[in-house]
Write a structure and sequence with these properties.
mainly beta, 5-stranded antiparallel sheet, 2 helices, globular
Length: 110
Amino acid sequence: MSKPTLDSFGNMVEGTFTTRTVRGTIQPVTGEEAIAYQEGGRNTGIVKIYSSERLAARTQEGTEAIGYVKQGGFWYEITDELVFGNLPKITHWKYIACKVPAAQVPKGLQ
């Protein structure tokens, strides 16, 4: 996961990413699930991420919290965060992420 620092205009400040390795799973979003998400109408690269650690997501703090994950050679931007409480006594987080086109991957991640 990576989280860039943004200036007062919302532009990424070069070289300000932090990275860490977390355990979790990344699964494709099915067609019916994609309908429920705003991103579903325009992007076929939507995935679900389940993690026992909280990750940065755009919905947490607006544009100041942009999280990315890398899986299978592709970068995904975390766009939504949901509490996943299906397991008793274990808190998991569920995220929705969209594949970032190669031309739009931030320079700090390339």
